Amino acid sequence: MAAAATMATSGSARKRLLKEEDMTKVEFETSEEVDVTPTFDTMGLREDLLRGIYAYGFEKPSAIQQRAIKQIIKGRDVIAQSQSGTGKTATFSISVLQCLDIQVRETQALILAPTRELAVQIQKGLLALGDYMNVQCHACIGGTNVGEDIRKLDYGQHVVAGTPGRVFDMIRRRSLRTRAIKMLVLDEADEMLNKGFKEQIYDVYRYLPPATQVVLISATLPHEILEMTNKFMTDPIRILVKRDELTLEGIKQFFVAVEREEWKFDTLCDLYDTLTITQAVIFCNTKRKVDWLTEKMREANFTVSSMHGDMPQKERESIMKEFRSGASRVLISTDVWARGLDVPQVSLIINYDLPNNRELYIHRIGRSGRYGRKGVAINFVKNDDIRILRDIEQYYSTQIDEMPMNGACPHHPVLFVRWGGGSGEPLDEGTSSCLFYSLTYAFLSLSGGSDLRSCCADKALVTICLPGAPAGTCLGTVSG
Length: 480
Hints:
By secondary structure, the chain is an alpha/beta fold. It has three domains: 2-245, 3-Layer(aba) Sandwich (Rossmann fold), CATH 3.40.50; 251-402, P-loop containing nucleotide triphosphate hydrolases (Rossmann fold); 406-480, no CATH class. The chain has helices at residues 2-6, 8-20, 47-56, 63-73, 88-98, 116-129, 146-155, 164-172, 189-192, 195-206, 223-228, 263-275, 287-299, 313-325, 358-365, 386-396, 435-446, and strands spanning 28-30, 78-81, 109-112, 137-140, 159-162, 183-187, 213-218, 237-241, 251-257, 279-283, 305-307, 330-333, 346-351, 375-381, 401-402, 459-463, 474-479. The strands form three sheets. An eight-stranded mixed sheet has the order 1-8-2-7-6-3-5-4, with helices on both faces. A seven-stranded parallel sheet has the order 11-12-10-13-14-9-15, with helices on both faces. Helix 14 (313-325) links the parallel strand 11 (305-307) and strand 12. Helix 4 (63-73) packs parallel to helix 5 and helix 8 (164-172) runs parallel beside helix 10 (195-206). The longest helix has 14 residues, at 116-129. The radius of gyration is 23 Å and the shape is globular. The two termini are 34 Å apart.
């Protein structure tokens, strides 16, 4: 029961937010007819797993869960793609748990992830969902004690979630026995099958029983990745969200035009107070840039934390713990953080550097707006980046508005919050395109309010837009 306790806060948040947003109205393309199962109760799941699902905070399966879970449970090889934050991790986690024989203390499912943090998050999610099943699950990741891995694996684990390098090492040492494995899951499959991981994946796959079921999960699956799956999947069923559905509707996207690279830092400093309204992640393209920006922000007396792949594992774990708890509010990171990590209170993403490819863009901005919440993404764009930005807009059929940084806020009315049953005033329609309105809206959605005019939260942020006022003039936090 301890695992369930650690997930209580995020679980209750999910429960509230899943009520607010209907995430089932998404159009999918499938390689063959796929039944849509509208409830968890009609999926034929074991009773102790159902208890764990509802205790975790889920009420109704998301669109990808309604289509993919039953296909995976049937034993089919599955390629599943859906937007960030729509429940893909729970899709394969529920399927894995359903297929386990708990009486057999051997590894029956292997889940591979591109980052250590994601592997640990998957392990914790499995333990929480399987809380009433007495499931054993171990995170097998680099940067940790090899002896501890060996001890845990010798004890017997139903599921192993890990990174390819350490998992392969444990297989070669014969500590991770593969004879009982019946399912291999590749989370963030596009990254896993990239050239950096491809050979390691094949190395692991060669040690698995021939009949092993393979499940691929990702927010983006480029055509060349789909072609590669022929090497190790048998007649897979494809469940792919249509590309024009990939836009994350709850996320308001902006860009800030900067003529020179050095102006990005000044822009970020101007935005700092806005970042701390909720929590923010700032993405850079290189580890060196993360270190440089972190040092510059701290020299300017701004409180930030940072994380990238070269940091020791214990330091990364400590930073993640602080950020999840809210003790740290602004995190600067490379794309190690763009893959699947779920921190519910993140409502703002800043791309200090535009990502190197279009697929990474949706992974990054998907760190906000998780599970239908509201969020904001801001892109810092130099003159020669405009073409890349327009390409992203066209690819995802989305709109990225320029954000006014200087002068008056273009939206004049005061934003009133209905407080404890008081009356609210109507909002100017244009106000919804204001960054600071969007951030306030995101903040309130985390507090249980789905509309500025009908929010009765214990704590809310009120943003005022007045003629001639600087953009984003804020009253601050008020308590009822």
